[in-house]
UniProtKB/TrEMBL annotation:
Organism: Candidatus Protofrankia datiscae
UniProt name for this protein: Coenzyme F390 synthetase-like protein
Gene3D superfamilies linked: N-terminal domain of ligase-like (3.40.50.12780)
SUPFAM superfamilies from the UniProt entry: Acetyl-CoA synthetase-like
Database matches in InterPro entries: ANL_N_sf, CapK_Type1_Caps_Biosynth
């Protein structure tokens, strides 16, 4: 199973432009709205977009030179006040001279253990806690300016598909946009210029209601978690085409990996390209998928310096002054390529280097076999159309050697569909796992923020197996 990536944890949306006739009077949080308005118009965002456009057209050597001097400036300004780098002056030296490969790679455990030592006390920031290795939380500090730089990079990627942040959209995602749903599955948020649909209320009735409420509003993009867009895409395939969706020109996938069959489904149902990007809460690497080469992600040089060390994506961030991480191991895997076949330029015209074969922490989700052996869910290949009949699915494990595939669909799946999925999985895992299949309500397969969760692991294997987790 190839999972491509779209990971962005910032909020996003649009300044109010079009208020549809039936928009109602529900507004999102004023603070989020004001921040977003400011972001769209901010000189910082516009400056970043200009730099990205200029560098993307420049020669690769020039881009590299720009990065080296940017990194030196960034650390001259901010690195000096970070306690960890004061105690280890070789970091500052290396950043000022652009010789990162002499430094050790910084692991997540080190950062977790010494969280405060990586923060600059001079930079105003908000605290963010994110899931780290083995689900253990990692405390991060994110500068307020990062909100703007993040938006600039997202806008750059969306722009490749002709979508501006202020364009009308339908959005399927959870509570990170500054408003609760308060029992209503559909909200119009003028700030973001979108109809926001709760990932916890995806039903035929909600979708019919959504299209009814669109009125004269003509979305140009569908944006959201792949797991939440999937039920809508299935519904559109059954009930469409709908005139209200005729102007959709891109599907923007946020915050989760997407399965290949999901990408194919979205392309077909919405007759539009799928736009994905890769990033992480630690803000060291950002890459947008090439419009001409699916699975190839162009690294944004303005965001950070990216290396691949022993197969792992390692990044040195240049946007989050509150916690500048140097040679940080993202724990994601990938391959780094020059932009074009001869180090020149990609077919899309970009001179930015390319990340391929990106495999993330989500792919490393494990289930445990009859002898406690770890089995990556990546090995349970989902290319087969047998799984496309479900809107969502999740592996649930409570006991050694047993796993339940929990599935949800707007229309109850046929017994033959369930039997087929079970048979395919059982064939793949042989006698290592006993597979069962159960139909469950869709909302039980989501995290508290409404994202899909591929593995709900309740079983803990013995310590010897834990050791082999990172092999
Ligand atoms: Zn390209």
């Amino acid at each position: 199973m190839t999972r491509a990536w779209a990971a962005s944890r910032t909020t996003a949306g649009a300044a109010a432009r079009t208020v549809p006739a039936r928009a109602g009077s529900v507004f999102g949080s004023r603070a989020a709205a004001a921040a977003f308005d400011a972001a769209c118009a901010s000189p910082l965002v516009r400056g970043h977009l200009r730099t990205l456009a200029r560098l993307e057209a420049a020669e690769a050597a020039e881009v590299h030179q720009w990065q080296v001097s940017r990194l030196a400036r960034f650390h001259r300004l901010w690195g000096r006040s970070v306690p960890y780098y004061r105690a280890h002056p070789e970091y500052l030296q290396a950043c000022l001279q652009g010789r990162l490969d002499e430094l050790p790679v910084l692991g997540k455990e080190t950062v977790r253990g010494l969280a405060g030592s990586f923060s600059s006390p001079r930079v105003p920031a908000r605290r963010v806690t994110t899931g780290g290795t083995g689900g253990r939380p990692l405390d991060l500090r994110i500068s307020y300016a990062s909100f703007f730089t993040e938006w600039a990079h997202i806008a750059h990627v969306w722009g490749r598909a002709g979508v501006r942040p202020t364009d009308p959209k339908i959005t399927f995602r959870g509570g990170s946009l500054g408003a609760g749903f308060a029992g209503q599955p559909i909200l119009f948020q003028p700030t973001y210029n979108h109809f926001l649909v709760s990932p916890f209320h995806l039903s035929d009735r909600t979708f019919a209601d959504l299209l009814d409420r669109l009125g004269d509003f003509r979305p140009v993009a569908v944006w959201g978690y792949p797991s939440a867009v999937t039920p809508f895409a299935h519904w559109v395939a059954r009930t469409g085409p709908h005139r209200a969706l005729s102007r959709v020109r891109a599907v923007l996938l946020a915050s989760e990996g997407a399965f290949d069959w999901q990408v194919a489904l979205f392309r077909e149902v919405f007759s539009a390209p799928v736009v994905r990007w890769y990033g992480q809460s630690e803000k060291v690497v950002f890459a947008g998928e090439c419009p001409c080469r699916p699975g190839a992600y162009h690294l944004a040089p303005t965001y950070g310096l990216t290396e691949v060390v022993d197969g792992r994506i390692v990044g040195t961030g240049m946007t989050n002054a509150a916690m500048p991480l140097v040679r940080y191991d993202t724990e994601d895997a990938g391959t780094l390529l020059p932009p074009g076949s001869r180090g020149a330029r990609c077919v899309c015209g970009s001179s930015f280097p390319v990340l391929t074969d990106v495999r993330g922490r989500w792919d490393q989700s494990l289930v445990y076999g009859a002898d406690d052996e770890p089995i990556s869910t990546a090995a349970l290949n989902f290319h087969d159309g047998a799984f496309a009949v479900f809107d969502r699915f999740q592996f649930h494990q409570e006991r050694r050697g047993e796993v339940e595939l929990r599935v949800a669909a707007a229309r109850p799946p046929a017994a033959s569909d369930l039997a087929r999925a079970r048979h395919l999985l059982q064939e793949r895992v042989g006698d290592r796992l006993r597979v069962s299949v159960a139909v469950v309500p869709p909302e039980t397969l989501l995290s508290v923020r409404g994202k899909g969760v591929t593995v709900d692991q309740r079983y803990r294997p013995g310590p010897a197996t834990e050791m082999s987790r990172n092999v």
